[in-house]
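Exercise 3.2. Students should predict the tertiary structure of the chain below and write it as structure tokens, then compare their answer with the key that follows.

Predict this chain's 3D structure.
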Amino acid sequence: MNNNYLDNIVKNSVSVSETAKSGVCLIGFAVSLLASQNINAQLVNTGDVKINPNTIMSVYMDYENTPQGSFVNDGKLFIFQNWKNDGLVTYTENQNGSTYFYGTEDQFIEGSQVSNFKNTYFENTSSLVPFHLSGKIAVGGNSEFKKGVVLAADYGGKVIFKEKATHTLTSDLSFVDGQVEKDGVIAFEFPVGQGQYFRPSYHASGSKNGGVYTTQYFNKNSNSLHSHDDREEKILKINNQEYWEVTQDQGADKIVLSLSMDSRTTPSEFFNVDEQKYKVSITRWDPASNKWINEGGEVSAPLAGKPYEKLLTAPVTGYGLFTMALIDLEEKSDDVIVYNAISPNDDGLNDSFVIKGIDKFPDNQVEIYNRWGVKVYETKSYNESDNMFKGYSDGRATIKRGDKLPTGTYFYILKYNTGKEQKEKTGYLYINNQ
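Answer key:
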């Protein structure tokens, strides 16, 4: 077989159909023959290639989709070597095309254009980090991380999950070391980590469409970026082993953020804390105040089947660098005490959300959000008598005004002016409306 034969294949429009019971298409067969003749094995597409539904295409050599190339995968595509896309790679929305990155050697995924796949599968046992991503992959369906870390951080690559995209099987054996983008408002676990550690973060469902967020995990000290000495007074210690960078690339929504806690990377001081004296919270570097601030947070058990020990969750007020901090609970004269449980059944006990001492600071604002980040209550000049939250929606979100809110965990944000400084507290509020 000569080079002219290969040129004839890749320069003409090709609609790939099943040609054998094995499902291997003609192009995959031609590639195998070329590789056996010690030719520099590379398949270059300058035309149109389409894999029809119920069809398998296997590429056993490097594949390059040129700027003139169009590649549509509505069947099954197996990539055993490297992948480069400088053209159009896409799928038909109502089809279930799948792209499998398999191999026995490291695989490089690159190109100047986004490779749009419906479903992706990563399985390569050649090394712990066999996938090297310098391009961008966008997933519209599901991405299965079975074996092998996808290293994007060293090459500037990114994995994008579209509005309804999901992922499965993420673990210490397979995740994204680098940037992961999520489009839309659906709750999402970011499959990020570094080295040998899967360290996801989570976003609860948003309330405003059009949001785009990017997250990356770093198993290193953030002190070199922003000194841990520059922090709010009540922050005693900041995690010096790891941090997450979360950016809002599009939109204006605030999020409820969860960070995973893992004793293999998270310092021991953040486990088995004396809750009478200290509190584990999310801290964020705030460029406006030029210091690390307390975003609040509550510790809970991990999601089932995950390798980390705990989750730390809080409604955050901004974006940037996040990690954990130990907060001093010692009361001071300008402090208020927040009681974080109510049972509004008119029995005279815990019927209202009590903030003890707030009467001293009438210049205040209270916001309450449900677990999906939807605001259910907001008021100014909160007090300890007639302007109090009693477990009912104020009608500014999807729940009608006057409706009793369902039992569950909510999050509050309290801002108040002491006369000397503007202070903020965040935390959870449990409502028992049964």
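Discussion points: Residues 1-39 have pLDDT under 50 and may be disordered. The longest strand covers residues 408-417.
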